[in-house]
């Protein structure tokens, strides 16, 4: 992946601001994210989702066990990405507890996203 932020380096963060690190999942189509997805880091999140959609073939994985927070716009970017896939689904593994609630609130019964518990 060409962008250093998507290749495992954290997105730039000012002191006291959130950072986001996104790296490929070994052995399967997907990404692992660490940090927070908020206004500061959302461009890197959206770019990572775009790259993931470009590589998608049936099932893509998002491993989020090391993500502390995803704002509503970050969840929206995930939902929009999943809705734009030609087929298959995105499996969200170990998300922060609020992410499934936000999905259910704004996108109930979205078959393109499967969430596994934390």
UniProtKB/TrEMBL annotation:
Pfam families: STAS. PROSITE patterns: STAS. Residues 1-20 are annotated as: Disordered. Residues 18-78 form the STAS domain. InterPro entries: STAS_dom, STAS_dom_sf. This is STAS domain-containing protein. It comes from Streptomyces pharetrae CZA14.
């Amino acid at each position: 992946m060409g962008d250093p932020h998507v290749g495992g380096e954290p997105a730039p963060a000012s002191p006291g601001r959130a950072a986001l690190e996104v790296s490929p999942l070994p052995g399967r189509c997907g990404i692992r994210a660490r940090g927070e997805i908020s206004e500061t880091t959302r461009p890197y999140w959206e770019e990572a989702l775009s790259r993931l959609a470009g590589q998608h073939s049936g099932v893509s994985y998002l491993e989020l066990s090391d993500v502390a927070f995803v704002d509503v716009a970050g969840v929206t970017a995930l939902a929009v990405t999943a809705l734009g896939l030609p087929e298959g689904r995105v499996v969200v593994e170990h998300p922060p507890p609020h992410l499934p609630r936000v999905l259910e609130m704004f996108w109930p019964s979205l078959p393109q996203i499967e969430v596994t518990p934390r």
